[in-house]
Amino acid sequence: MPTNEQYNGLFLPTDSQFAGLLKIAGADSILKLVGKSHWTHPEIGSSDIHGMLNDGKKVSLLDCVLHGTSRHRFDENSQFESIFFPHYAVVGEEFISSGEPVIQAIRYHFKNVDSLVSGRETFQSLHPEIAEIHQILEIDHKREERIAEKYGWESRPFNPQIGEHPHILYFSGLWEIVSTSAEIGKVSLTNRSSHPGGSAAGIGIKNQVTANIEFTEPKTLDEATHALRTLHGLFELSLGNRQSFCWIELELTHRSKGTSHDRPQTAQLYWSLCNERVQGDPTTNLGDILLCPDRNPEEFATVAKGWMNSAESMGDPRVRFATAFFGSYSIDRIVGGANMFDLLPSSHVPKTKEVDTSMREAMAQCRKTFSDLPDSFARQSVLSTLGRIGKASLRDKINHRADKIIEVAGDKFPELYLPCSQAVLCRNHYVHGSAGSFDYQKHFTEFAFIVDTLEFVFAASDLLDLGWDMKRWMSQGVTMTHSFGVYMINYSQNISRLKQLIGK
């Protein structure tokens, strides 16, 4: 999403009694409407506002929040101003509304999407022999002659100018890099290339790798952006850092009126707050990326399909992971890191353990005793604890997920249970006030190590469930531009420091 202002001019609502000023500029976007009364706005919630821009395009401002009103007096007349913050602006041929399922595809480009793919086989620089370039030019000239003859155009003579060292810039014509069919629809990465006509200034080929979701059924804007955020989360994990949106395009169910070809309308989506959490745009080396779509397309397709299909069950823990993983090292981060394991669905944690008869009878007696007491925090705490007996503890859940990593790469992460256990003790210290194993503020390196362990175990085990080839990633060599590569390279030193600190 461009940070510069795409629109900053007059806005005429469909209600001609108002005129205004619209500024689309990310988090600074604003709409001011002026008329003989305040704009009618629902008392609760947000609203949609439709209008025309000064360049003649239609804009649907969705999920608008009223920020304030004012009244201006001019002699005996008054002008009323209403100020809104639009969460979304959709610019296209037709208006849309928040509740309308009219979006059949969403396509977007983000800052470092080019880092996901090498493109080495798709875009090349060739240096053919003189005879080879002559043959290529002759074949292309004959093709142009056939087209000219078909449409009655004037043909041009074949007069190639070839020097001693011809040079060709080459695009293979491969538009689709990789695709997979998820329950929500087709997910793909495609090339979107362009090139100007040749001139004395030269010639070149530009390309934007585009991520696409083509829905099986039309979606509302909220549903479409939710799917986009889900897919984007996989890309951010693979690259190891937040990624800023450059542009987002919607494909609508409406048919375009501006061309003789029957094709769907497209509209630009300006999402005001999509880049608020992004700080800088650090790049990741190709060898460090967890999933490389063009080098390992089958693996990427399998993981992406599983990621999208498990969005409902794994959505909350993955969002909690991203909130912690991309933040700064802090108490909130260790608490959030532990919390994502608490949010895991039952399919991802150990099964409930059966308790013996004597324990079950003791639990029933305690529950009856405390249930008869007056309601209090202490009573609820004891009843809650009784309800958790037999269920997997936080430590059980983390170790269960760590088992998956140990099975694949145990020699790379010896004694992985140790930092996992220390992370639980640290979390309990900050949440319940229990004793910590060491001074977490004083020994920051060891504190950061146990935080990293929680996040690595969570994300790596999640990807392993979906079909990630962790062994391949570890064997290809890393340059530590992804935090998981840093964790793997520094693990031996960090586990030694931790053991020495806690006296083991």
Describe this structure in words.
The chain is an alpha+beta fold. Helices cover 38% and strands 25% of the residues. The protein has twelve helices and 14 strands. The protein has helices at residues 130-151, 221-239, 297-309, 311-325, 331-342, 357-371, 377-388, 394-409, 417-432, 444-466, 470-475, 483-502; strands spanning 7-13, 19-24, 30-35, 47-53, 58-74, 77-92, 103-110, 123-126, 168-171, 176-181, 185-194, 206-219, 245-255, 264-271. A hairpin with a 3-residue loop joins β10 (176-181) and β11.
Looking at this protein, list some descriptive labels.
12 helices, 504 residues, alpha+beta, two-stranded antiparallel ribbon, 14 strands, 38% helix, six-stranded antiparallel β-barrel
What topology emerges from the helices and strands here?
Elements: E1 7-13, E2 19-24, E3 30-35, E4 47-53, E5 58-74, E6 77-92, E7 103-110, E8 123-126, H1 130-151, E9 168-171, E10 176-181, E11 185-194, E12 206-219, H2 221-239, E13 245-255, E14 264-271, H3 297-309, H4 311-325, H5 331-342, H6 357-371, H7 377-388, H8 394-409, H9 417-432, H10 444-466, H11 470-475, H12 483-502
Antiparallel strand pairs: 1-2, 1-4, 2-3, 3-6, 4-5, 5-6, 6-14, 7-12, 7-13, 8-9, 10-11, 11-12, 13-14
Domain ApeA N-terminal: 7-272
InterPro entries: ApeA_NTD (IPR041223), HEPN_Apea (IPR041229)
Domain Apea-like HEPN: 357-470
